[in-house]
Model the fold of this input.
Amino acid sequence: MLKEYLTVKEVAGPLILVEEVSGVKYEELVRVKLKSGEERMGKVLEVNEDKALVQLFEGTTGINIYTSRVSFLGKEIELGLSEDILGRVFDGLGRPIDGGPNLIPDIELNISGNPINPYALDYPEEFIQTGISAIDGLNTLVRGQKLPIFSGSGLPHNQLAVQIARQAKVVGAESEKFAVVFGAMGITFEESDYFISEFKKTGAIDRAVLFLNLANDPALERIATPRMALTTAEYLAYWKGMHVLVILTDMTNYCEALREISAARKEIPGRRGYPGYLYTDLSMIYERAGKIKDKKGSITQIPILTMPEDDKTHPIPDLTGYITEGQIILSRVLYKKKMAPPIDVLPSLSRLKDKGIGDGKTREDHSDVFNQLFACYARGKEAQELAVILGESALTELDKKFLNFSNEFEKHYVSQGEYEDRGIEETLDLGWKLMASFPTKELKRIRQAWIDKYLVKFKEELDLTDEAKDEVSTEDAA
Done:
């Protein structure tokens, strides 16, 4: 029988202080019984001699310090798991909200997870196709990678998250063993409804698990949500041999909840009021991804965060960039041009892309194509800046070609629409088609063998198109 304490001494915000306790451990689960018979759950945030600081998931409203009974359950938060979890929707603490029955678990796992021995990690090198050209072609996602998306307030990161979740696949024989775990923190009712309806409408819900924490839910639940999602991913990957993509949005809301709890505990704040252990806490989430040797499954992470005031030096994107392997950056300028998704490819980076592309993975010409596209687009943006300062008449004919290329590249390659799913072959061919307008001597980053093999047909198509245009202009003149 569990010991019950009647020694609640103080209530402060979401916290209660319990005295004269013994044998209590950090992160231990707590049950509080009110005089009315209502029960609330919480966890231990801090232990100091015979005092325990407890935060309640449901808040402290209505708690009487003289009549409330506190029990320490001797275990941390656990999540019951089975393969039936696929296709289900849960709240931030793993309780079903889709109207379905409670899960009958095969196993219960601690949501804090176990640290992975770095020596046991296998190097990520298999390609994951998202169906989005700006990612697959230029910032390739590799199985086992942590690749965050840096967005801003009002930008369409939720639409991008759903598009990736809907379209992502492992190319090849193992594609049927692919699952998506989607964790959303601090979202509105409207966003929650959007996520659920989009997953159900497209059938993606059959291979997905959703954990949705709303903005009016307690801060402590927001802290648990990504850990619930990652615990589910670890079960599917390492116990069931599946390849799992974990999408977490919005990590900024998670960090705000961490700051709120830190302030309630009266801890000394760090940079911009965030706790000094923000880096450690984020790394405990991001580092729960990867491939383990001798295990069939893998976990790939795409955390999404909104940069306050679009500031890349803000502590959240800054620390995230240190821990993860690159970043996809959304551009407000491209968004105003009605580009979707508005991915700014120049500052974006996937540090592992070289390991996931090439013959046998995507296509033999992939590396040369993305290098050349990147170089052409960068030169086109330089020409654009020059035209703003000196006027377009100051540009050479070649500069004008690069300027035109950058506009066409944004319009046809970067922008593709929310429901357009492009295969990697289509993405690479589109790159060749855009580069066909340049003289061959300007394609300095592509090997001649690939130019001879792939560029010829697009040059011929371009010549036929130009001939047709000339005929039309001649008829108009006549």
